[in-house]
Amino acid sequence: MKLSIFDFFNNCLWWQLLWMLLSFLLGWLLARRFLNGDSGECCEDLKYWKKNYADLESKYNSLLTSNAAFKPLNSIPENLNLGISPGSSIYDRLESNNLQIIEGIGPKMQDLLHQSGIKTWKDLAGKTPHELRLLLDKTDGNRYKIIDPTTWSDQAQLAVNGKFQELIALQKSLDTGKTDAINETDSKLEKIMIKLGIFKKWKQDDLKAIEGIGPKIESLFNQAGIKTWDDLADAKVEKLKEILHAAGDKFRLADPTTWPIQAELAAEGRWHELQIYQDQLNGGR
Predict the structure, then answer these.
(1) What range defines the domain where residue 271 resides?
(2) Nearest residue to 270 via CA among 84, 74, 75, 105
């Protein structure tokens, strides 16, 4: 079927936007001209074009919000699996003078560093391991001899650069700040985030850790043999929907699409990624 030029314009979003912008420009030019007139007729025309502009602006804003092609670039997930943005504000509650996020630094060591002029992550990142070693030996060589500051500057630099996920990954390979950990360890930063209430700490295999799952759905899944985070991570979304639909109408509105992904993060102890991911969800969606 042959389309006319008007059909082409009506079916092309970009041309619709251009058409509206041109209409706005024409209205603006006419309004400028009428502003120089004195007659009542010109005033009435001006009112008409102002109203026309308001309608065009409303339609344009509606297109921006409703059409995915015009959504801001920062709303597009940078990680296709998790939708995690490296610049997420979840870490904004951390203060740069909190040196205790560094693996190997506790309250007393933080006080010592602060008194020595090392008050922020940037200050610490600017020190070499040798300089930190000299500082500790000068303060009390015997007392701090077992403390190894080798990685402190590197950890602090990651914090300065906002690379908190990389910092957590590094800390899980350390043992009290040293690089000789045999197995994966807990992250000091994660512990601080839990203490501040930014990360939630859940009992092992508590399915309520998953955004969208409450006590009743957890009970349904337990009865169906899904009792752990690993079980849920391995479950097919179609199977989860079958369980929910079989339980009645009030459970059919639940959307389990993201639940296996969340469960996998929980099972692997990737709490920082889970928290960021969940902050972007609405009822598990």
Answers:
(1) 207-279
(2) 84
